[in-house]
Amino acid sequence: DTEVTQTPKHLVMGMTNKKSLKCEQHMGHRAMYWYKQKAKKPPELMFVYSYEKLSINESVPSRFSPECPNSSLLNLHLHALQPEDSALYLCASSPFKDFSQYFGPGTRLTVL
Amino acid sequence: GENVEQHPSTLSVQEGDSAVIKCTYSDSASNYFPWYKQELGKGPQLIIDIRSNVGEKKDQRIAVTLNKTAKHFSLHITETQPEDSAVYFCAANDNDMRFGAGTRLTVKP
C-alpha cells in the first residue's frame, strides 16, 4: 500500500465551527507533514511530525492544531478559522524526515 | 532559509518535443531535490528526485540534472505526451522542504 489517504475531500465551515482533517498512511513511514496550498501557488509547509513528535512548526496560527495519535495517523484540528484560511490542505509522509515525501489528494477547505 | 526559484512559469510544447524546467536554490546545505507533478484537483505526485552526491538521474522519459556548484537543477522530459500536461514543482530540502513557484506545462496534441 503506497497511498496516503485524507478525509474529508471537501469541507465547508463557518468561522465559529470546530472541525478536524484526517490523514492516514500504512507504509510504515515515520515522518508526516501538513501543507497548505492556495490556488496557483506551491505547497507551504505547516507542521512536521517525526516519530510522532512535532519536529517543525512553521509559525502557524494557533487556530490550527496538529495531532499525531500514532505513527499512521495525523490530524489537523481547526477552530475559529478565517476566510483567508480557505485552501487545499495536503498531508504527506516519508520513511524518515528529509526523505522522499508522498502526498495525499488533499482536503479542499472553504471558510465562510 | 532556503529560497527556490523556478523557470519558466508556463511552458507550451508540441507533442513529441522535449520540455526543460529549471530551478535554482540558495542554501548550499540543501542535499535533496525532488520534482512533483500536480494535476488539477489532485495532490502533488513525486516523479523523480536526486541527492546532492549524484549529478544526473534518469527514469524512462524523465531526467534530472544537478549542478551543486552553480546551485541549480533541471527537469528534462523527452517525447512529451498530452498526459504530461500538469503543473510541475521543484523543491529543495535541507531541514525542511521549500518548493519553487511551479511551471504549468501544456503539451499540444
Topology:
The complex is a heterodimer of chains A (112) and B (109).
Chain A: E1 4-7, E2 10-13, E3 18-25, E4 31-37, E5 44-50, E6 53-57, E7 64-70, E8 73-79, E9 87-94, E10 102-103, E11 107-111
Parallel strand pairs in A: 2-11
Antiparallel strand pairs in A: 1-3, 3-8, 4-5, 4-9, 5-6, 7-8, 9-10, 9-11
Chain B: E1 4-7, E2 10-14, E3 19-25, E4 32-38, E5 45-51, E6 56-59, E7 62-67, E8 72-77, E9 86-93, E10 97-99, E11 103-108
Parallel strand pairs in B: 2-11
Antiparallel strand pairs in B: 1-3, 3-8, 4-5, 4-9, 6-7, 7-8, 9-10, 9-11
Structure summarized in a few sentences:
Chain A is an all-beta fold and 112 residues long. In chain A, 0% of the residues lie in helices and 57% in strands. Chain A is globular, with a radius of gyration of 13 Å.
Describe this structure in words.
The complex is a heterodimer of chains A (112) and B (109). Chain A is globular and about 35 Å long. Chain A has strands at residues 4-7, 10-13, 18-25, 31-37, 44-50, 53-57, 64-70, 73-79, 87-94, 102-103, 107-111. Helices cover 0% and strands 57% of the residues of chain A. The N and C termini of chain A lie far apart (36 Å). Chain A has 112 residues and is mainly beta. In chain A, strand 5 and strand 6 form a beta hairpin. The model of chain B has no long low-confidence stretch (mean pLDDT 94). Chain B has 109 residues and is mainly β. Chain B contains no helices and eleven strands. The A-B interface holds A 4, 40-45, 48, 56, 58, 90, 92, 98-106 and B 31-32, 34, 36, 42-46, 49, 89, 93, 95-102.
Essential attributes:
heterodimer, A: 112 residues, mainly beta, 7-stranded mixed beta sheet, 4-stranded antiparallel beta sheet, 11 strands, 57% strand, B: 109 residues, 6-stranded mixed beta sheet, 5-stranded antiparallel beta sheet, globular
